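Re: that backbone. Tokens:
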């Protein structure tokens, strides 16, 4: 079976999905329908905005289906009528019911942004950053009725730079996962690859991100704060409470060489120890962190170089 005769129903929503979708199209696969989440209000003005994969589908003349649920008879019949050889998911955000999994003539394949069986679930990329992992990657797997429990076709490892944030990491992983997906499908069609079971003794589950997970305090180690900021500054936001108000933090650097021996006050957690040019350095638990970008309550989002001079050394932030 050639690529252009291989019919695919593709399911995904964010930019990670879009990179994979475009790779399939560019490789010559016949993507007959894109399934994605409904349009949603975005931003302060709540402008109704389509998922990026819908935009791509429309540009390429591909049918787009946006069900509220895949568990209805309508959803089942709509996908069944496509007679797909493959059903492909990439950051789709919903578990496929068993009867939909059975529709694919050849296989159901998922592009998962972690090194399974580590980080099964809804937040694999945020979780690896929060936990300070030194590496992550992409797993191409066969879908089953569980949450990321299916057999694995292949993996590719990516070392995580210590200051890389969620958005950038997702972008990197999408450009790893897209060609890996195309290569895997080619090997499946050529009977040149076998899926292997996951090692259940190594399973790590991760769960949906909640807004309160972005809160930290200055009694945390600097590295822990840095990892929360890297993982959650885009959404739901990383913040510390100051007199009941949120000081939002968008970018940080762990400071390893700060010399506090010349300070003429007793340094305590949460104190500013340097506020000059691009440095806004705060004492944490046995450590120091630089706030590279922040937003004080009622203020604008600013880089330290634009606002550090407004803060006073020896005071609490």
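Recovered sequence:
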């Amino acid at each position: 079976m050639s690529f252009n005769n291989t019919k695919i129903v593709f399911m995904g929503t964010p930019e990670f999905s879009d990179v994979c979708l475009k790779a399939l199209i560019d490789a010559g696969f016949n993507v007959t329908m894109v399934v994605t989440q409904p349009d949603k209000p975005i931003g302060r003005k709540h402008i109704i905005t389509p998922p990026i994969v819908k935009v791509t589908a429309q540009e390429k003349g591909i049918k787009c289906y946006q069900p509220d649920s895949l568990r209805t008879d309508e959803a089942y019949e709509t996908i069944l009528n496509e007679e797909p050889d493959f059903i492909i998911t990439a950051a789709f955000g919903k578990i496929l019911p068993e009867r939909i999994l059975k529709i694919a003539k050849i296989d159901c394949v998922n592009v998962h942004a972690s090194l399974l069986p580590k980080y099964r679930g809804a937040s694999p990329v945020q979780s690896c950053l929060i936990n300070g992992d030194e590496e992550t990657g992409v797993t191409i797997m066969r879908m089953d009725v569980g949450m990321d429990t299916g057999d694995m076709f292949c993996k590719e490892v990516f070392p995580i730079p210590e200051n890389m944030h969620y958005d950038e990491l997702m972008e990197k992983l999408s450009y790893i996962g897209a060609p890996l997906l195309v290569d895997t499908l080619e090997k499946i069609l050529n009977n040149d690859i076998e899926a292997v079971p996951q090692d259940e003794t190594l399973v790590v589950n991760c769960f949906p991100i909640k807004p309160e997970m972005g809160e930290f305090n200055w009694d945390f180690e600097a590295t822990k704060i840095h990892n929360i900021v890297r993982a959650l500054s885009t959404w739901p936001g990383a913040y510390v409470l100051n007199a009941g108000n949120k000081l939002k933090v968008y970018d940080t650097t762990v400071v390893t060489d700060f010399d506090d021996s010349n300070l003429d006050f007793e340094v305590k957690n949460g104190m500013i120890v340097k506020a000059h040019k691009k440095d806004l350095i705060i004492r944490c638990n046995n450590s120091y962190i630089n706030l590279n970008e922040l937003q004080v309550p009622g203020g604008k989002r600013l880089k330290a170089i634009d606002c550090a001079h407004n803060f006073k050394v020896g005071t609490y932030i």
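The first strand starts at residue 7 and ends at 12. The chain is about 25% helix and 30% strand.
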